[in-house]
Write a structure and sequence with these properties.
It is built from twelve helices and 19 strands. The protein is an alpha/beta fold and 461 residues long. Helices cover 34% and strands 21% of the residues. It has a nine-stranded mixed β-sheet. Strands 2, 3, 9, 10, 11, 12, 18 and 19 form an eight-stranded mixed β-sheet that branches. The radius of gyration is 21 Å and the shape is globular. It binds flavin-adenine dinucleotide.
Length: 461
């Protein structure tokens, strides 16, 4: 089994020859730091809207090296954060509904661009299933459905499937029921990142790789190869943000780890079902997420080691054996038919989590400094919407997008160390213990341990 090497997705796609570094100091209209989905979408839409703009993207490694080339491939309309927190913005609850509708439209927009630009990322819009694997998970699922209905989500947004209805789509051991939403698509993440980078370059974006930005200031971005002077500077570094000077406590680099099986035999797929390419998640506190890949594997992820001291990062994505064992156990428990299937690869990456778990898209017109991120694990579709929104903000467009409640949303800083480390590790220790207790006890009530975890984290529901 491969471990690390960035991700299975990149190994399957094949790494591209590295693009050149920034050759020398230069001027641009917009300089974007980071070539993940956020930076690439922002650059792509800026150039498409105004081909006369000079847009320079600086990337420390290569386009799609970060979470964008390592994720679970859920192009999901899930809100990155809490409705009640976004509802405190000037547009109130209507603004939240507008943001949720914009995210649903974004799932289709990603598919449209893939089609128009010939990006073969295995995009299939099969929806998403959230299964309940214990009575406590079933109770949370029902509570979630009640909240969604109270916000006005109808059957077209989310519906309940009982055990039999779920079994018509997929056989998950011990699943009592599921929520189904059609607003989610599957992609091969690295193929999306690679195709998007090519589309941006084709549109005229100047993308420099192996160029680490060492400092960002109004009007100027510094690198070891020279500076880029630009009226607008957009920081699109999500989970890596803490490496930049002065930004260590801005976004917590939360780890997420994945495993992928070898292609499964037809006999195994006959037992599992899963013919509709739905994305799959559960209702555990330390939740799992999975996809059936285009070539008939299961790729499954979960939290792993949640956080490294002092916002540390593990660049190449190597996963601890204990995490591989945890994820394999989830795979075998949910799908006993996979017990004899081999694992092909394990890897991990970091996503950016703000202190209130709500994403932000911000541009200060006075300084020209902007950023987007903090999607808290829901960044694949959200980064497209954020990129389009940054493009509108830079161009001074008074579009609907720039009125959405995450625009200009402000965060508190994370606690200094060792509090940050202790807080995140206690949180996930409590959540894992709560998950074990809930499964063993078979009681429908959420474990009190999880409630303590929610209090520590302030994770919104
Ligand atoms: C394992 C995993 C699974 C996930 N699964 C899902 C999922 O299924 N669905 C979903 O919606 N979200 C998922 N996410 C989250 C999602 O992938 C991210 O939110 C999203 O990709 C963030 O994109 P980004 O462009 O903002 O950041 P990134 O993709 O992390 O890109 C940031 C880029 O900035 C570069 N960079 C950093 N510092 C510098 C610097 N100083 N100079 C120059 N460049 C720099 C990095 O090299 C990197 O390429 C997952 C994340 C992980 C890690």
């Amino acid at each position: 089994m491969h471990n690390g090497d960035v991700s299975f997705w990149w190994r399957q796609r094949g790494l591209l020859p590295r693009r050149p570094s920034l050759p020398a100091s230069t001027d641009a209209d917009v300089c974007i730091v980071g070539a993940g989905y956020t930076g690439l979408w922002a650059a792509y839409y800026l150039k498409r809207a105004d081909p006369g703009l000079r847009v320079v993207v600086l990337e420390a490694a290569f386009a799609g090296f970060g979470a964008s080339g390592r994720n679970g491939g859920w192009v999901t309309a899930a809100l990155p954060g809490s409705r009640s927190k976004y509802a405190k913005g000037p547009r109130g609850a209507d603004g939240v509904r507008a943001l949720e509708q914009a995210l649903r439209d974004t799932v289709d927009e990603v598919g449209r661009v893939c089609k128009d630009e010939g990006i073969e990322a295995g995009y299939v819009k099969g929806g998403v299933l959230n299964v309940a694997c214990s009575p406590a998970q079933a109770a949370r699922l029902n509570a979630r459905l009640d909240r969604d209905r109270a916000w006005g989500d109808g059957e077209d947004v989310v519906s309940y499937l009982n055990q039999d209805q779920l079994a018509q789509r997929m056989n998950v051991a011990d699943a009592a029921g599921a929520l189904y939403s059609p607003h989610c698509a599957r992609v091969q993440p690295a193929k999306l990142a690679a195709g998007l980078a090519e589309a941006a370059v084709k549109a005229g974006v100047e993308l420099f790789e192996a160029t680490t930005v060492t400092a960002i200031a109004a009007g100027q971005v510094s690198t070891p190869f020279g500076a880029v002077r630009a009226r607008y500077v957009l920081r699109c570094t999500e989970g890596f943000t803490g490496r930049l000077p002065g930004l260590r406590r801005k976004l917590l680099p939360m780890n997420s780890a994945m495993i992928v099986t070898e292609p499964l035999s037809d006999a195994i797929w006959d037992q599992i079902g899963w013919g509709g390419c739905e994305l799959l998640g559960d209702e555990a506190h330390a939740y799992m997420y999975a996809q059936r890949t285009a070539d008939g594997r299961i790729a499954l992820g979960g939290r792993g080691i949640p956080y490294r001291y002092a916002s540390g990062l593990d660049d190449r994505g190597a996963v601890a054996p204990a995490t591989v064992a945890q994820l394999t156990d989830i795979l075998h428990t949910m799908f006993p038919a996979t017990a004899s299937a081999g694992l092909a690869h394990a890897w991990c990456g970091v996503l950016g989590v703000p202190r209130d778990w709500c994403a932000s898209v911000t541009l200060d017109p006075a300084t020209g400094l902007g950023f987007a991120g903090g999607y808290s694990g829901h960044g694949v579709a959200a980064s497209n919407l954020a990129g389009r929104t940054l493009a509108d903000l830079v161009r001074g467009e008074r579009s609907e997008l720039v009125t959405l409640p995450w625009v200009g949303h402000r965060w508190q800083a994370w606690e200094p160390e060792p509090l940050r480390w202790a807080g995140v590790h206690s949180l996930y220790t409590l959540y894992r213990a709560a998950d074990r207790l809930e499964t063993r006890s078979g009681k429908p009530a959420t474990s009190p341990l999880a409630r303590v975890g929610d209090l520590i984290s302030g994770i919104p529901h």
